[in-house]
Amino acid sequence: MAIMKNNNPTIERGPYRPPSEAASLLIRTTRNCPWNKCEFCPAFKGERFELRDVLDIKKDIQNIRKVVDKIKEISRKLGQETKVTGEVLNYLYQHSWEGNYPEIALWLFGGENSVFLQDADSLIMKTDDLVEVITCLKEKLPGVKRITSYGRSKTICKKSLEDLRLIQQAGLSRIHIGLETGYDSLLAYMQKGATARDHIESGRRVKEAGISLSEYVLLGLGGKEMGKKHAIETAKVLNRIDPDYIRARTLMVRKNTPLYHKMEKGEFVPLSEDEIIEEERELIENLDNIGSYFVSDHVRNLLGEVEGDISRDKDKMLSIIDRYRDLSPEDKLNFRLGRRANVYQRLDDFFDPSLYKKVEAMMLRIGPGEPENVERVITALMARVS
What we know:
This protein is an alpha/beta fold. It has 3 domains: 1-149, no CATH class; 151-157 and 172-326, Transcription Regulator spoIIAA, CATH 3.30.750.200; 330-386. The chain has helices at residues 54-77, 86-94, 101-109, 127-140, 153-157, 161-170, 184-189, 196-208, 223-241, 258-264, 273-285, 310-325, 329-340, 353-366, 371-383; strands spanning 25-28, 30-31, 50-51, 114-118, 146-150, 172-180, 212-219, 245-250, 293-295, 308-309. It has an 8-stranded mixed beta sheet with strand order 1-4-5-6-7-8-9-10. A two-stranded antiparallel sheet has the order 2-3. The two termini are 40 Å apart.
């Protein structure tokens, strides 16, 4: 059975999606970011924002449907009853399956449940256009149960509640919003293009429309000068929104950002990892009377296991942070190196003697009694993570 590799339908794909959408099929509705001025953000710098033509987006969806049908036909011929099994994946890879097909095959293998609309702000589309795209998506891929997108708070503030309800009824399940901070002075300093009031209004409107809401917080964004206010004011805003998910990210200042130039000039002084942990503790401690689920689902976060329902698991999360805080400076350095080198996945791993010795040997190779060298290695390891 031969696979035709010529005349494969093209499907446009953007470069980014949230970690929580790793299993989602990616459909590009816009190109790049309509704001693109955030001082800390390296994404889309130097790129022009464009709205894709609705007909082009629908053509992509139709092409995805063609690929799905082709893969399922191959599955049937392999005796797998149109199911995308490991045997089907192996066959496709052995026969040099091209283009976006491997991603679509993996999506089918994972259950074809979710789709993420790219790039940075699909909500900026006209409501009728977005509804048309989502409706087409649901018609062509009826197995999809969840459709999600990034959205800017300022953009959502311009949508009426009626518009958001139309989008929800069409099938949009969740919106990911980059809150980053609830501190107005820091929002202005970072050129976020939104205020705490904008974040509260947009978040509440999304929830009222019946759409699941993820709000992203950027740990370390306040630096030495505004770190404490960043944590406290962000908690205040989140308490007023009560999002479904609060997703923590740790700041990494990239070279191609305006914030990096501020850091070089000494205008922005970043926090150490231990100080970021203190900031995270301050944030969680000030979250109150909400049902949000706190998620630390990015590898750059030092304590990825700090996760749970704020209404039930707050003390447990704080206790994990406190266990780290109680380590000696030498053990903290060992854990941080091991975490960044993927030896430790959780704080509990630090107490495994074999893993501890492995990291200890790494530290000896870097240079005994030279924490500055270890810090440089840790920074280099973190810089490799996107």
